[in-house]
Structures are given as structure tokens and as C-alpha cells.
Amino acid sequence: MRVLGVDPGLTRLGIAVVDGGVGRAVRAVAVDVIRTPAEDDLSVRLLKVSDAVEGWFDQHRPEVVAIERVFSQHNVRTAMGTAQAAGVVALAAARRGLPVMFHTPSEVKAAVTGSGRADKAQVTIMVTRLLGLSAAPKPADAADALALAICHLWRAPMRDRMAEAEARAAELAKKHRARLAAAARESRTVIK
């Protein structure tokens, strides 16, 4: 499976493509940071993000997009810009019919380092090791984008199995309720 990982942001948006293989095998395909000048109008910045992401879709043909879920930040303006950038990426993916999954920062950290409280340096070290990179990806936004893709590759099979199990359980519960209702109807007709 090929995953496009996105660490959203207006000034710096980390973007990476990672291929998943058998088991937990992962391979970095590409990584970069999309930058937009703070002095540009918001609409222009969002258009630049959209155009760059579209280029990545054309060049790398991902099967799914994994985006970091925006969490509350102290700076509302920063949180808004981050959310807007994430929305632009999700919209571009939806236009192409690509599934979009959102992962929380702690979920990504736990998947890559084993601890949901890992710092950026720990995430970067583990991403570098897991992908067998000769140098750590910089800036941290690039490492975070790689971590998001890895997180999705490792968590998606589990999520799929959980969804299948929940669907089977719901179907069994539905059949059980139908049998109970039929038995109740039958007992009422026998009593009369």
C-alpha cells in the first residue's frame, strides 16, 4: 500500500510518501516540506498548498492519505491555519476518490516510538531507523509526515479487522434479535 502522509501547516506542510510491504516493512519514496510565505494572502497560500499536493498525487499515485488531526493549540491563529491546510489536502484527496484518514499526534507517536508522549526528536530518530535513512529528515515537519504514513500503514490492517469484527457482531446481534422476536410471536400464538 502506498500512503501519502501530511503534517498540515500553512507556513510549513510536511508531506511524504511511504510504501508498506509484508508485515511491518516500510520504504520511504519521497519526503519534502511545502512552504508558503506568511506575507501572502490566505487564499493564495491555500492555493499554493493545493497545487503542490495535486502535484504529489500526480507524481506518486498514493492509495490513501493520512493527515495529522488538528488538536487545540494555544495560538488560535496557528490552529486555524493548520486546520485550513488539512482541509485543502482532504478536499484534494476526495476529488480523486482517495480515502483520507486522520491520526492524532499521540497515536502517531505511539505507533512509531511506542510512547504517545514522545518528543519530536524521538520521532525523528525512530523514523530514520525504521526507514533505514542515511540522514534524519529535516525539518521536523518532514519527519512527522513520514511518521504519519508509517502509523497508517501499521494501524490500517488492525482498523480493518476491527471494522470487520464489529460488522459481524452487529449482524449476529440482528439475527439474534430476529430469533427472539420470532420466538416471542410464536409463544403468544401458542398461549391464545
TrEMBL record:
Free-text cofactor note: Binds 2 Mg(2+) ion per subunit.
This protein's UniProt keywords: Cytoplasm, DNA damage, DNA recombination, DNA repair, DNA-binding, Endonuclease, Hydrolase, Magnesium, Metal-binding, Nuclease
A biological-process GO annotation: DNA repair
Enzyme Commission code(s) on record: 3.1.21.10
Cellular localization per UniProt: Cytoplasm
Residues the record lists as binding Mg(2+) 2: E68
Active site: D7, E68, D141
One Gene Ontology term of the molecular function aspect: crossover junction DNA endonuclease activity
InterPro entries in UniProt: RNaseH-like_sf, RNaseH_sf, X-over_junc_endoDNase_Mg_BS, X-over_junc_endoDNase_RuvC
Primary location class: cytoplasm
Subunit details: Homodimer which binds Holliday junction (HJ) DNA. The HJ becomes 2-fold symmetrical on binding to RuvC with unstacked arms; it has a different conformation from HJ DNA in complex with RuvA. In the full resolvosome a probable DNA-RuvA(4)-RuvB(12)-RuvC(2) complex forms which resolves the HJ.
Function per UniProt: The RuvA-RuvB-RuvC complex processes Holliday junction (HJ) DNA during genetic recombination and DNA repair. Endonuclease that resolves HJ intermediates. Cleaves cruciform DNA by making single-stranded nicks across the HJ at symmetrical positions within the homologous arms, yielding a 5'-phosphate and a 3'-hydroxyl group; requires a central core of homology in the junction. The consensus cleavage sequence is 5'-(A/T)TT(C/G)-3'. Cleavage occurs on the 3'-side of the TT dinucleotide at the point of strand exchange.
Entry's family note: Belongs to the RuvC family.
Protein name: Crossover junction endodeoxyribonuclease RuvC
Organism this protein belongs to: Actinokineospora iranica
Gene: ruvC
